[in-house]
Amino acid sequence: MIRKMKKEDAEIFYKMAEQFYASDAVLHPIPKKHHVDTFNEMMRSNVYLEGYIFEYNNKPVGYAITSKMFSQEAGGIMLWIDEIYIMEEYRSIGLGTEFFNYLKTTLDASIVRLRLEVEKDNERAKKLYKKMGFSPLEYDQMMLDLKDMN
Predict the structure, then answer these.
(1) In the chain, how many H helices and how many E strands?
(2) Which long-range contacts (CB under 8 A, 24 or more apart) does 100-107 make?
(3) Is the pTM above the cut of 0.85?
(4) Which of 2, 33, 34, 55 is the most buried (most CB within 10 A)?
């Protein structure tokens, strides 16, 4: 089952986010403060972020975070699937597919594109994303962390 994250989910979110950021799916861990700030923003409003809990037999076993932005290229609002994490023992049982189907049936009509990123070596995730209709972009991404500039 997929459901929106609630205030009572804070500790389970923190635990799973730490597991996600300790995995091969990301480049490096992040400070716990980032998890707390993210959760607080998801609870404050759905303007920027929304969080989802994946449950199996009424047990939280994963989460996802989405973020919205307007994209001129896409011609409307793009939903960035920022993170998807499912505990190892619950992978390949259909939760990822269920999440994408949930999004497709519950999204506001103003959302015109879904976008995500995946580690180059994460073949398992790429297979799911391709099955769900995603295709690779020819862009390389770049970033500048303003908080690191002094």
Answers:
(1) 4, 5
(2) 100/132, 102/2, 102/52, 103/66, 103/79, 107/79
(3) yes
(4) 2
